[in-house]
TrEMBL record:
Cellular compartments annotated: Cytoplasm
Gene Ontology CC terms, in alphabetical order: cytoplasm
Principal location listed in the UniProt entry: cytoplasm
SUPFAM superfamilies: Class II aaRS and biotin synthetases (SSF55681), Nucleic acid-binding proteins (SSF50249)
Catalytic activity, reaction form: tRNA(Asn) + L-asparagine + ATP = L-asparaginyl-tRNA(Asn) + AMP + diphosphate + H(+)
Aminoacyl-transfer RNA synthetases class-II family profile domain boundaries: 130-430
Protein name (database record): Asparagine--tRNA ligase
Length: 430
């Protein structure tokens, strides 16, 4: 049976055969070093002319980048290699020769790389980022399963907007108008009333004309929703969840963090509890930092979030935003109804808001009043109102943006490198 690079550690001293691609190579008159990758990892294959003979050696010297191969050789431990093992090659068999692979080891511009995203994904850095993404997803399921949550899948095609109506993707649904989901939240509220503690993980869509390092048109969100929970209890779930993700990535992605030159000391500090400041305090902090433009009642932009984050080496919760800049479903603070029981979690190091969450309105009359204020159509939301009609309970939830979290953990500047095929304002291909 063929082996993968991930498995070679169990075959030290033994001969294995594996399928691989040539990532890079170096050679002299007597020896060739093949950097091999197979998706599970990277390993160096060493081809010694005196051992393999002229024919195999010439083959090794002439293989081009991204040619696919079967390689047979003996696994040896090698402490100098970042992967710990090396393959002493005996035989090589070309499956398919790649000619002029466009992404060479030299530097390329971003647009060129994005045009070749389908091939760029093979590079070491992109591979590391996707492995970190995968670890966050794995740890998410583990965390919520261990904490008594059930995974529920909200629909992607919806008839009602959860967040702002200006950012909806419209589509025909036979004779009706439908939208691509901006958030599964409204459905997750229904699910929380049926299952108590639930979470979702799925794609969401925002027709936002934003071209920033933090915005994607299509992104993936993890949305937990919890019955019988208030705002403060939800914050505790959030900080425990994010701390769990950090610890899992530090434990299981050492090689990847290393490949990305990530400063792991900064990540190692991230542990619950996280600091909390109110929106009011955040406004004062910004004014002290010289942001004269910000006035109470206005939303924060990316520069504001970054400035706030600089005051902490932890993610920070900004709580109690003014009701008029937040979504219709957020519960007003009973002691101060002009602000709502909500929080945004701002990541350190300028990665911005990674979580938005709130306690939800559970009172039927207040929810009806919000519908009118926000001019939401009664028909599309009738079912959502009924959640407040039959055994309504205090409940809260939040949404974590996967790509921004991957960017933060990986230390990559732009979210476009944190999803396999990014959908951006000016990009639908590949
Ligand atoms: O703050 P948002 O809009 O919150 C909601 O959608 C709530 N309904 C979630 C809930 O309570 N169930 O989005 C949540 C998170 C943001 O904090 C951000 O991390 C991410 O989703 N996000 C984006 N990520 C990439 N590109 C975009 N355009 C994003 N918009 C939001
Ligand atoms: Mg938000």
């Amino acid at each position: 049976m063929k082996k993968t690079i991930r498995e070679v550690k169990d075959y030290v001293g033994k001969e294995v055969k594996m399928g691989a691609w040539l990532a890079n190579k170096r050679s002299s008159g007597k020896i060739a070093f093949l950097q091999l990758r197979d998706g599970t990892g990277f390993i160096q294959g060493v081809v010694v002319k005196a051992e393999v003979g002229e024919e195999v050696f010439q083959l090794a010297k002439n293989i081009t980048q991204e040619t696919s191969l079967y390689v047979t050789g003996t696994v040896v431990e090698d402490t100098r290699s970042p992967f710990g093992y090396e393959l002493q090659v005996k035989e090589l068999e070309v499956i398919h020769a790649a000619v002029d692979f466009p992404i060479t080891p030299k530097e390329h511009g971003t647009e060129f790389l994005m045009d070749h995203r389908h091939l760029w994904l093979r590079s070491k850095k992109q591979h590391a980022v996707m492995k970190i993404r995968n670890e966050i997803i794995r740890a998410t399921y583990e965390f919520f399963n261990e904490n008594g949550f059930i995974k529920i899948d909200p629909p992607i095609l919806t008839g009602a907007a959860a967040e702002g109506t200006t950012e909806l993707f419209h589509t025909k649904y036979f004779d009706e108008e439908a939208y691509l989901s901006q958030s599964g939240q409204l459905y997750m509220e229904a699910a929380a009333m049926a299952f108590g503690k639930v979470f979702s993980f799925g794609p969401t869509f925002r027709a936002e004309k934003s071209k920033t390092r933090r915005h994607l048109i299509e992104f993936w969100m993890i949305e937990p929703e919890m019955a019988f929970m208030n705002h403060e209890e939800s914050l505790q779930v959030q900080e425990n969840y994010v701390s769990y993700l950090v610890a899992s990535v530090l434990k299981n992605c050492q090689l990847e963090l290393n490949t990305l030159d990530r400063d792991v000391e900064k990540l190692a500090k991230i542990k619950a509890p996280f600091p909390r400041i109110t929106y009011d305090e955040a406004v004062t902090l910004l004014q002290e930092k010289g942001f004269d433009d910000i006035k109470w009642g206005e939303d924060f932009g990316a520069p504001h979030e970054t400035a706030i984050a600089e005051s902490f080496d932890m993610p920070v919760f900004i709580t109690h935003y003014p009701a008029n800049i937040k979504a219709f479903y957020m519960k007003p603070d009973p002691e101060r109804p002009e602000v709502v029981l909500c929080a945004d979690l701002i990541a350190p190091e300028g990665y911005g808001e990674i979580i938005g969450g709130s306690q939800r309105i559970d009172d039927l009359d207040l929810m009806k009043q919000r519908y009118e204020e926000h001019q939401l159509s009664g028909d599309a939301y009738q079912w959502y109102l009924e959640l407040r009609q039959y055994g309504s309970v205090p409940h809260a939830g939040f949404g974590l943006g996967l790509e921004r979290t991957v960017a933060w953990f990986s230390g990559v500047e732009h979210v476009r490198e944190t999803i396999p095929f990014p959908r951006l304002l000016n990009r639908l291909y590949p």
